[in-house]
């Protein structure tokens, strides 16, 4: 039986997908999204708000492979998502047996697609030799999947949010500072301006801000059980773009998404996305960092306190991470490119890189649906379906335990993507903007 009212804090892919699913399933329900930024603002802090994101089902984890295929089918076929999807293919330089595992997962799932593990010698010749000068040290083989691609991320997010509003979802621009409780039940949210909004179910899809928000709520309500307690870590990565000149654009316009993956000793995978309509080619860097601060007496990683997370203030050492990313994909081909736009993008991370889509164990009526762990965007079209199944106690057992609030947490050292730096450590005392 559905509740009548829902508040979803956060209008990234987790929150918007949930709102879209709820309002279509229960057209008469009251569904409110609360976000610090307007959905059509020129600049937003959401990780989901971006020029582009990789859309792929190339996962060695068969569950994410299955869910990503489900999502990608919607990206390809649903008129709401379809205009934003570009099936350019992916070119993934693998230093483990990742390529073979992905091919095997597609086979196990009975999915026919144009994908294969290609030898380095053969791969270098593909796509007119665009990646001939990449770093192939220790590369075992290259996964080439012609069916993967990328999406205009912010545009798709805006379109689906607009659709939600058209269907009756309320969108409130406000920063949520705390939560309200009646005994053991969460009853609503309190905004920074002092307004209180109430609903039967409160869903936090607040991305990188989640641990901080829960700490504020724990303190304000004197309920320590509300804290995230190390389950959720805010992590940042730098992105950078270059605007290609006419000649380079002609050469790179039809490039696939490119990925360099490493292992837990060396570091996370690094990526480069094909040029946008403004001819801007993008990278994300290899340094994933925490920003541990004293939040109400506890060391918690959270984005910088500025209302825009200081996301456009990118210091030199972080820009150098993008220069490095450029060099390992394009070598001499990209050596003269000028790096223009840099941004620090913050996401919520768990030590296993699994999402949290779960009731919060500390209060009834309170739910957490976030922790994209740097790979959540591609699931946009299906996240809401699984969040609503969770709200209604219908999530299949395997997903329930994978995404639970309380679950066994692997050693973070085994995860190449786990933030291994502190931002201040990278910047150093002398860092110049
Ligand atoms: C550099 C980078 C590259 C990535 N690349 C990819 C990729 O190629 N493919 C992919 O699938 N995934 C990728 N990801 C991951 C993906 O972007 C995220 O996992 C996903 O977007 C997270 O969605 P979310 O809804 O949890 O959070 P967000 O998108 O961050 O949204 C959270 C929302 O909550 C709001 N909010 C937070 N706190 C409050 C508050 N107190 N009050 C009101 N509102 C609040 C924010 O304003 C924001 O709009 C990448 C992430 C990064 C950082």
Automatic annotation (TrEMBL):
Cofactor needs: FAD
Annotated ranges, domain FAD dependent oxidoreductase: 6-390
Protein origin, superkingdom: Eukaryota
UniProt entry tagged with the keyword Magnesium: no
Membrane-crossing residue ranges in chain numbering: 6-23
The entry's keywords: FAD, Flavoprotein, Membrane, Oxidoreductase, Transmembrane, Transmembrane helix
One Pfam family, short name: DAO
InterPro entries per record: FAD-dep_OxRdtase, FAD/NAD-bd_sf, MTOX
Keyword Transmembrane applies: yes
Family designation: Belongs to the MSOX/MTOX family.
Protein name: FAD dependent oxidoreductase domain-containing protein
Species whose genome carries this gene: Paraconiothyrium brasiliense
């Amino acid at each position: 039986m559905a509740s009548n009212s829902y508040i979803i804090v956060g209008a990234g892919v987790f929150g918007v997908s949930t709102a879209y699913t709820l309002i279509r399933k229960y057209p008469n329900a009251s569904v409110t999204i609360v976000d610090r930024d307007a959905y059509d603002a020129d600049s937003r802090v959401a990780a989901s708000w971006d020029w582009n994101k990789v859309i792929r089902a190339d996962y060695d984890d068969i569950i994410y492979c299955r869910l990503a295929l489900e999502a990608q089918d919607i990206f390809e076929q649903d008129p709401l998502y379809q205009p934003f999807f570009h099936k350019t293919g992916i070119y993934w330089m693998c230093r483990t047996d990742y390529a073979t595992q992905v091919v095997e997962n597609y086979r196990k799932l009975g999915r026919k697609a144009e994908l294969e593990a290609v030898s380095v010698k053969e791969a270098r010749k593909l796509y007119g030799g665009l990646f001939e000068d990449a770093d192939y040290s220790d590369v075992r083989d290259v996964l080439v999947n012609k069916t993967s691609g990328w999406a205009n991320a912010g545009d798709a997010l805006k379109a689906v949010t607009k659709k939600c509003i058209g269907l009756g979802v309320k969108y409130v621009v406000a920063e949520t500072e705390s939560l309200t409780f009646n005994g053991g039940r969460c009853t609503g949210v309190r905004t920074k301006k002092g307004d209180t909004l109430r609903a039967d179910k409160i869903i936090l899809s607040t991305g990188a801000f989640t641990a901080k928000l829960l700490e504020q709520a724990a303190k304000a309500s004197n309920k320590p059980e509300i804290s995230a307690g190390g389950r959720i870590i805010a992590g940042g990565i730098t992105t950078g773009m270059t605007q290609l000149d006419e000649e380079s654009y002609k050469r790179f316009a039809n490039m696939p998404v490119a990925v360099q993956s490493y292992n837990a000793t060396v570091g996370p995978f690094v990526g480069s996305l094909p040029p946008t309509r403004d001819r801007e080619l993008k990278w994300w860097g290899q340094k994933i960092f925490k920003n541990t601060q004293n939040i109400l007496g506890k060391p918690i990683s959270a984005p910088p306190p500025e209302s825009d997370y200081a996301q456009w203030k990118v210091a030199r050492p972080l820009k150098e991470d993008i220069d490095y990313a450029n060099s390992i994909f394009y070598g001499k081909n990209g050596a003269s490119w000028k790096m223009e736009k840099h941004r620090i993008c913050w996401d919520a991370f768990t030590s296993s890189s699994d999402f949290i889509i779960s009731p919060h164990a500390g209060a009834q009526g309170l739910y957490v649906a976030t922790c994209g762990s740097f790979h959540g965007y591609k699931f946009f079209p299906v996240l809401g379906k699984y969040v609503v199944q969770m709200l209604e106690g219908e999530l299949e057992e395997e997903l329930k335990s994978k995404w639970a609030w309380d679950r066994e947490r692997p050693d973070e050292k085994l995860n190449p993507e786990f933030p291994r730096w502190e931002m201040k450590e990278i910047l150093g005392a002398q860092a110049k903007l």
